[in-house]
Amino acid sequence: MTQPTDIRRDHPPTALSLAASGVPVLPLRAGKVPFGNCPACTKNACGGRPNMKTPGPCTCPSPCHGWAAATTDPNVLNSTPWVRAWREAAGVAYHPGGAGLTVVDLDNAEAIAWACATLPATRTVRTTRGEHWLYRGAMQGANGVRPGVDIKSTMAYARWLGPGTGPMTALPDVVRALTVREPAPARTVSVTVPAMGRGACPHRTPTYLDRGIAMAEQRITEAREAVHATVYRTFLAVLSTHGRCGCLTETHTARLFTAAQAKGESPRHCADAWTNALTTLGLSHV
After folding, report:
1. Cα angle at 174 between 173 and 178, to 5 degrees?
2. Consecutive sets of 10 residues in the chain, 286 residues long: mean pLDDT of each?
3. Which residues contact 74 (CB under 8 A, 6 or more apart)?
C-alpha cells in the first residue's frame, strides 16, 4: 500500500473517511497543534478538565480540547464550526487510543535504528523527520520515553500521514514497558521498632518471622491497585503479629520498606504508614 506524497489537501474528505472506519479525527493548525479553546471554553470555563486529562464534560460544537475533541460523528465533522476549522486547518490528526491503536513516534534516524533492533516489525508511516510505527492495542501515551521516541495512544493525538505500509501487529510488552518508571532506589528511613519482648521469642524460631516478612513482601509486590492501603494493612498485620515479641528488627522493616518503594511508595509514605500502624495497635509510645 503506497502512501500519498501530499496530505495537505481535501482534509474534510480524509477526515470523513477515517471517521467512517472508526478512527476519531480532529483538525490541526499550522505547527501541528490542535485548535485552541473557543471563547466560551477559555480556561476550561465550560467544565473541561485542565490539561485535557479527560475529555469533558464540555459539549462545545467547536473542535476544542485538543485530542479530546476527536470524533467519528459525521454530523459533528460536517457542522458549521468544524467546517470553518477545516478551512483553516493545516492537517488532519487522529486519536490513536480511541481507535484501539498505539503509535511509536520515532523522530530521527537513531530512534529508527533503535526500533529496528528492539521492536517487532509492524506497519510504518513516514514522517517529516522519521517514522510512526503503528500497533494494534491502546496504552497510556507518553513523551520522551527515550531519546527521540514518543508514545501516542490514549489521551494523545498523532498526525494522519497516510495509511502506511506493512501489516500491523499486536502491541508488544516491550512498548508498554517504555512508559513504566523504574522505582526509585530504596532510601533508609528512621522508624520506630517496638521492643516489648523479654527473654525468648514466643514464636520459638526465627523461621516463623522470616516467613511472615517474606509473605508481607509478596503481598505488597503483588498489589495491583490501592497500593497505599495494601502497604498500611500489611504493616499492620506484621506489627500485630510480631510487634510485641521483641524479635522485629530494622533489617526486617527495611525489607518491607524496600518492597513498598518498589511499588512507587515514597520513603515518607512508608514511614507514615508504619507510624499509623504502630498508633493503631497502641505501640507508638512503647
Report:
1. 110
2. 46 93 93 83 65 56 86 93 90 94 96 95 95 94 91 92 95 88 52 48 68 88 82 86 78 88 82 84 67
3. 16, 19, 20
